Amino acid sequence: MSTNQIALKHLVSMELLSNEEVLSLIKRGIEFKNGEKVSYDDQHIVSNLFFESSTRTHKAFEVAELKLGLDLLDFDSKTSSVNKGETLYDTILTLSALGVDVCVIRHPEVDYYKELIDSPTITASIVNGGDGSGQHPSQSLLDLMTIYEEFGHFDGLKVAIAGDLKHSRVAKSNMMILKRLGAELYFAGPEEWRTAEFAEYGTFVTIDEVIDKVDVMMFLRVQHERHDEYSAFSINNYHKAHGLNQERYDRLQEHAIIMHPAPVNRGVEIADELVEAPKSRIVQQMTNGVFVRMAIIEAVLKGREENR
């Protein structure tokens, strides 16, 4: 058995993971990427419940589950009893009673998972696929895996997170764990999209102040769906002030990498021709998302085995 196999009851927030657990999940993801295989004697059923649109997270979890040889129970919110007014709690209570082992959930409500993991009746394990503008732990772990593959450590790395900070669960998940792992953090983007919580973890700057100093330049998607003020939003003005253009790309250090959780608003956060540039790790992030999610599901299944 790999020393990187860990056991978790649920995975809902980066805050609830220790540094050791985070590193174990990263290293286990790398083992899966390098060809590690697992097999299960018992049947395990997983259901992916996405109440917000998703391509990468949803399909990466599906591919991860298929690679682990698990049985997938289809769930479509459009044809479920949610349309009759059924609550999320009762939906998960039902799936749990039917014998589903793991529910991967994306939901617009921040902290939706709290009543699920506190329930004495729900036995299914919960994996958070994103809660509103709260947390996105699996994205954070794939980001960390990508950085770890590149540098082999986090301590002392200079990481800038730029863009729609206020509405980004990616930024919130990453800032917490990167700070804890020893990285030096900078935050850039429009002032109206900054909130006080970011000041606890790093320094507010403009992108031009840090572009030539950082090891990791992480851009965030402008989340049009979570804003009300986009009638006045200018793509050209945003890109000019806060986006990655060729001039800024050329100022990056030789070893620096570009990251983005995707989907990229091409020509907004990053110039179209730079999305797949040599310093970009965006495609690698998507690939790593499958393998780190294999590690997550494996850890939760192991936790269930140990708690029988």
From TrEMBL:
<feature type="binding site">
    <location>
        <position position="221"/>
    </location>
    <ligand>
        <name>L-aspartate</name>
    </ligand>
</feature>
<dbReference type="Pfam" id="PF00185">
    <property type="entry name" value="OTCace"/>
</dbReference>
<feature type="binding site">
    <location>
        <position position="57"/>
    </location>
    <ligand>
        <name>carbamoyl phosphate</name>
    </ligand>
</feature>
<dbReference type="InterPro" id="IPR006130">
    <property type="entry name" value="Asp/Orn_carbamoylTrfase"/>
</dbReference>
<keyword id="KW-0665">Pyrimidine biosynthesis</keyword>
<dbReference type="InterPro" id="IPR006131">
    <property type="entry name" value="Asp_carbamoyltransf_Asp/Orn-bd"/>
</dbReference>
<dbReference type="GO" id="GO:0044205">
    <property type="term" value="P:'de novo' UMP biosynthetic process"/>
</dbReference>
<feature type="binding site">
    <location>
        <position position="169"/>
    </location>
    <ligand>
        <name>L-aspartate</name>
    </ligand>
</feature>
<dbReference type="GO" id="GO:0006520">
    <property type="term" value="P:amino acid metabolic process"/>
</dbReference>
<comment type="subunit">
    <text>Heterododecamer (2C3:3R2) of six catalytic PyrB chains organized as two trimers (C3), and six regulatory PyrI chains organized as three dimers (R2).</text>
</comment>
<comment type="function">
    <text>Catalyzes the condensation of carbamoyl phosphate and aspartate to form carbamoyl aspartate and inorganic phosphate, the committed step in the de novo pyrimidine nucleotide biosynthesis pathway.</text>
</comment>
<feature type="domain" description="Aspartate/ornithine carbamoyltransferase carbamoyl-P binding">
    <location>
        <begin position="9"/>
        <end position="149"/>
    </location>
</feature>
<dbReference type="GO" id="GO:0004070">
    <property type="term" value="F:aspartate carbamoyltransferase activity"/>
</dbReference>
<feature type="binding site">
    <location>
        <position position="262"/>
    </location>
    <ligand>
        <name>carbamoyl phosphate</name>
    </ligand>
</feature>
<feature type="domain" description="Aspartate/ornithine carbamoyltransferase Asp/Orn-binding">
    <location>
        <begin position="155"/>
        <end position="299"/>
    </location>
</feature>
<keyword id="KW-0808">Transferase</keyword>
<dbReference type="InterPro" id="IPR006132">
    <property type="entry name" value="Asp/Orn_carbamoyltranf_P-bd"/>
</dbReference>
<feature type="binding site">
    <location>
        <position position="136"/>
    </location>
    <ligand>
        <name>carbamoyl phosphate</name>
    </ligand>
</feature>
<dbReference type="GO" id="GO:0016597">
    <property type="term" value="F:amino acid binding"/>
</dbReference>
<feature type="binding site">
    <location>
        <position position="84"/>
    </location>
    <ligand>
        <name>L-aspartate</name>
    </ligand>
</feature>
<feature type="binding site">
    <location>
        <position position="106"/>
    </location>
    <ligand>
        <name>carbamoyl phosphate</name>
    </ligand>
</feature>
<dbReference type="GO" id="GO:0005829">
    <property type="term" value="C:cytosol"/>
</dbReference>
<dbReference type="GO" id="GO:0006207">
    <property type="term" value="P:'de novo' pyrimidine nucleobase biosynthetic process"/>
</dbReference>
<feature type="binding site">
    <location>
        <position position="56"/>
    </location>
    <ligand>
        <name>carbamoyl phosphate</name>
    </ligand>
</feature>
<feature type="binding site">
    <location>
        <position position="263"/>
    </location>
    <ligand>
        <name>carbamoyl phosphate</name>
    </ligand>
</feature>
<dbReference type="InterPro" id="IPR002082">
    <property type="entry name" value="Asp_carbamoyltransf"/>
</dbReference>
<protein>
    <recommendedName>
        <fullName>Aspartate carbamoyltransferase</fullName>
        <ecNumber>2.1.3.2</ecNumber>
    </recommendedName>
</protein>
<feature type="binding site">
    <location>
        <position position="139"/>
    </location>
    <ligand>
        <name>carbamoyl phosphate</name>
    </ligand>
</feature>
<dbReference type="Pfam" id="PF02729">
    <property type="entry name" value="OTCace_N"/>
</dbReference>
<comment type="similarity">
    <text>Belongs to the aspartate/ornithine carbamoyltransferase superfamily. ATCase family.</text>
</comment>
<comment type="pathway">
    <text>Pyrimidine metabolism; UMP biosynthesis via de novo pathway; (S)-dihydroorotate from bicarbonate: step 2/3.</text>
</comment>
<dbReference type="InterPro" id="IPR036901">
    <property type="entry name" value="Asp/Orn_carbamoylTrfase_sf"/>
</dbReference>
